[in-house]
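Board notes (copied after class):
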Amino acid sequence: MNSLLTNTSAMVALQNLRSVNKDLNMVQEQISTGKKVGNAKDNAAIFAISTVMQSDVKGFEAINQSLNLGASSVGVARGAAEKVTELLTEIKGLVVAAQEENVDRAKIQTDIGQLRDQISSIVDAAQFNGLNFLKGSDTTSFLASLDRDSGGSVTASNISVSAQSLELTAGTAVASTLTGTTGANGTADSAAALVATGNDFTLTVTGTVADGNVLELKIDGTRFSYTVDTGEDETDVANAINNAINDAGIAGVTAAVAGGTVTISNATGGAVAFEAAVTDGSGGLAGLTGINVESDPTGALSEIEDLIDYAVDVSAEFGSAQKRIEIQNEFVTNLTDSLKTGIGALTDADLEAASARLQSLQVQQQLGIQALSIANQSPNSILGLFR
C-alpha cells in the first residue's frame, strides 16, 4: 500500500544510508589517524589497557635517560680508576728500582711525587655532571625499572653504586687496643710495645672498620701497610696483620688470628719493637703520601702493593657496576620497544583492510543514495491516479 503520509521505502533506504555513512566516517577516521581505537568510545577496555601501557612507555623512556646518566658517571670513574692503577704500577717500578743501594733514591722519590700529584689530579677531575665516585663513600641510586604487579601497583627499583675513594687525604685514627705481659698495655689511636722474648701480646681492632681504612704496621723497623676493601671487617683486618707478620718471615715472630684479635708471639731470643695504627682513610690511597724510598724503601714496596690491589678492586667494582647498568639499559630499551609493539597491535588500524572497506562503503553509499532517490519517487505514482 502506498501512502502520501508514510513512505516506508524511503525510511528504510534512509536508515541504510545513515548506517553506511556512519561506518564510512569511522573508516575515514581510522585512515586519517591510523588508529582503530583512538578514544574510550571506540573500545573502553582496549583504550584503558593501551593508556596504562603508554604511561609505562613514558616511564621507561625516562628510566633510559637515568641509566644513560648512570653508565656515563660510572664509566668516568672506571676509566679514572684504571688510569690510577696504571700510574700506581709505574710508581711500583720506581719503588722496585729504589731497592738497589747504588741508585739515587732522592731523584726516584721526586718522580714518585710527580706521579702522586698526577693521581690526585685524575681523582679530582673524575666527575660527570658533578658526581665523582672516586671521592667519599656515598651511595648513589639510579632508577632502573618500574615494576607493576597484577593489582596495578607500581614500585620503582634502583641500581645503587657506592663511591670507592681513591683520594690521597689522610684520615683520623681508629682506636686499637694493645694488651699483653710486656708492661706496655693500653688503648690508643696507635699502639706500640717493646715485646720481650718469650712473651705474647694481642692487638685487637675495635670501632667500625670501614672501606678505605689504612692499617700501618712496623715490626723491628720493617713497615707494612694494608688498605681495607669494600665489605671487610675487623676480622679481615686482623687477618691482614697476621699475613703481614707471617709473610715477613721475621725469625721467631709468629701470629695467629681469632675473630678481630691477633696474638703475636716473640721467640726471637731478644726484644721486638712493634707498632700498629689504624686510620680512618678518608682517602683510599692515603698510604701513598707516606711512601718514601729514601727513608724506608722496603716499607714503600709493601705499601704500593696494597695500593695497587685496592685500585684494581676499585676498577673491577666500577666495571661490574657499569656492565650491570648497560645490561639493564639494553633490557629497558627492548622492553619499551615491546610495549610500543603491543600498544600498536591493540590500537593501530589495519590500513589495508580499511582501504578496501572504504571503497566498499563508498559504493554502498552511492547505491544507498540511488535507493533513497527511487523510494522518494513512490508518491508520484499516487498522483497518477488523480489525473
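Comment from the instructor: Residues 172-281 form one domain. The longest strand covers residues 139-148.
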